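Changelog-linked ticket: adenosine-5'-triphosphate example.
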Amino acid sequence: MNKVSMDNSNYINVYVGMDDTDSAKGMCTTYICSVILDRLKDCGFKVDSLPRLIRLNPFAPHKTRGNGAVSFKMVLKSETEIEEVKNIILNQVEELSVMEDPKTNPGLIFYQVHQENYESDYEEGYDKNITPELQDYALKTIRTIVKQEEAEALADKIGAEVYRFKKGRGIIGALAAIGCPLEDATYELLAYREPANYGTKRRVDAESVREMNHQTYPDTFDNVDDGYMAITPHTPCPVLYGIRGETPEAVLEAQKLVNVSEPIERSRVFITNQHTDMHLQIADNISNMKQFQCYIVKGTVKEFPINIEGGHVIFTLTDASGEVECAAYEPTKDFRDVVRQLAPGDQLMVYGGIGNQGTLNVEKIEVVNLAPLYEHVNPLCECGKRMKSAGAGKGYKCPRCGNKIRDDSKEKIEVERKIKPGFYEVPPSARRHLSKPLVRG
Ligand code: ATP
């Protein structure tokens, strides 16, 4: 429980959401949020609780990278304070957003809830001011595609103020970042570079990251992948590294173990819906699944998986309602070896999202039941040696004792399966931000 003590006058809870400030060429909405929070602190304002990094539908059409939006909450005491805070935020967004990129369309939401006698019953992940309607909107934005008009209409209905730069598309994510419930949450510590170093190789000591992982896993997770450090992005953005973990304390402790040989301009811990599977909906059946949405779906493997060009592995999942093509793409690396072992009749729960081509992009599978797999082999001779064909229609002959049989039929034997029932997942480097690693239970 995070208590905020205040004297007994009226308070104004101000929720700030922002999105769509960056571009593929640079910047990051979490960075702008961090600059704003430091600026607000310097000006004497207190931010209630950790800022929130909320990942939205991974198939949203206009996303730059990981479809992340941010929000934070402040408790203020007067309209003058609110105006001052708004000015700081709007100026920073205007100054730091990549406005010259036509695809960058920042949007901001300010949502005020007035309250007498401030008694914070705030708990990470729970806030009574966030109505079920706002929460439902956030879940819809995480699971489906929403229109800007819907965000505008809801903001209008709840009396939130909307600020649009250019097309202002960012208000979709900004409102969702305010509304997102966080019953399950993880934490990410983001460290940012000096602007002079943007675009240059990140100087993070990989050995120290491995050691950090060794000492702190599974309180921190997905920071190392198959021995390689997985905390540094590959884009020219301000992020030096991000450490993922179960608690703020875990990621802060982990940071102490990571050595870098370039200056860190600032760093900040975000509470986030990353790694919670919040994007997944339970599908009633295969035919009810829609494109650009993510599901947990039950079905049976139809045929043996096949390898296709590019190193991808695909198979068809069926149920009484229809079938869907499922793919383990090349970046999922060793996970493809598991998929290659599937056989017709295997019963699965598949976790993943339906992309552009209507193919289900697999994030993890639960093998519920393995079908018996048979192969047809030449019969065994009485002497124990497997026989050889004596020619078409001529039966079999034993290569050891010369024994012959006229019967042409083969023997059906059960083959030992190379996978077992249970869960299998893609490696951290191929994992969607929202996807829950098995280590989280
Ligand atoms: P980064 O992760 O680097 O911050 P991004 O991948 O979050 O970038 P944005 O630049 O924020 O991408 O662009 C995503 C845009 O899509 C935003 O305008 C956001 O409001 C909008 N958006 C997010 N989710 C949805 C959705 N479910 N339906 C429609 N639009 C969405």
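Closing comment: Example verified and attached. The first strand starts at residue 11 and ends at 19. The pocket of adenosine-5'-triphosphate is lined by residues 19-20, 22, 28-29, 56-57, 60, 62-68, 105, 141, 145-146, 169-170, 172-173 (CB under 6 Å).
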